[in-house]
Amino acid sequence: MSRRRGWFSGSVALALVAGLSLGAPGFVLDAQRGVHNPARWSDTPGSLADDGQRGLGGGIEYAVAADFCQNLLPRFVHDQPQPSCDQLADALRGAFALWAADHPALRFVDVTGRLRPALPPAQQPWLGFGAEIDVFALSADAFPNVRGLGAWTSTWWLNAAPRGTHGRTLNGVSYTSADIVFNAGQGCLFFDPDLQGRGCDHFATLALHEIGHALGLHHPDEFPGENWDTDDDPANLMTIDCDAPARGLMKSRAVDRDAVMTPQSPKRVATRLSNDDLSGRNFLYPICG
Fold first, then answer.
1. Each residue of 128-150: pLDDT tens digit?
2. Contact 61, 111 (CB under 8 A)
3. What does the pLDDT look like over 257-289, one tens digit per residue?
4. Taking the CA of residue 96 as centre, how many other CA atoms within 13 Å lie in the half-sphere pointing to its CB?
5. I need a labelling partner for 266 at 20 to 30 A (CA). Which of 38, 51, 198, 276 fits?
6. Are 97 and 89 in contact (CB under 8 A)?
7. What are the angstrom distances between the C-alpha of 120 and each of 3, 56, 134, 228, 246?
8. Rounded to the nearest 5 degrees, what angle is found at the Cα of 1, between the Cα atoms of 256 and 249?
9. What is the largest CA-CA distance in the chain?
10. Cα–Cα distance for residue pair 240/38, rounded to 1 Å
């Protein structure tokens, strides 16, 4: 389970205003921003590592902290033997790949070793620290937001309209970075799918859930008044209009309990995204042509 907090600025300035990211069923977005003005990654040409440009153009670039594996391994209390660091890296890579699957404009690039992960200063958050997505494993003493949770994802955005996957401006604000922090000091994780049912979080599924937050989605059962669908069946894949993604959307109280973005999803093993998850992804990042 995770929570998500966003910071945004009216301009590229040091004064930032906090905005708590909320969401709801069907697919769920940031309730403060709403379906008509969401936060999304802009399809801006260029790469952060190569050109200093943040956005979808060069792929969303992610970097894993050097101490991630050693900090997280003690949480795997049932796996015998414990997973290797290479296995954790492969599981992370696979989780990113599931969100990008069959999408012509959405991809993720591992820049670990090229860009150094960095958390914004606690008292003065800013919009350009580390890679576009940084991945950490920290205790609650080092990062209090993870206390009592499996992980916490923070997102940061600039108050500038994003460029859509069709090459034109869309409503909303533009993500600049996200920080995924796994709780390294509390709870337990499991890697082997056969260990499901012992009350621990499945590592790959937890990663899949948190990446969904980093893309702009939230928990589909927490804010039913802000759930969006094109009908009352969350199992149906929604048809998203590339030119007007919000067209045809309506609020629905039907919740997809099997969605990866439900809070309890990391307790089970998920090997795919549900149509509810994919519809939220395709709303934020429409598949055009």
1. 789 999 999 999 999 999 999 99
2. yes
3. 788 998 888 999 999 999 889 988 999 999 987
4. 21
5. 38
6. no
7. 17, 21, 11, 32, 32
8. 35
9. 51
10. 15
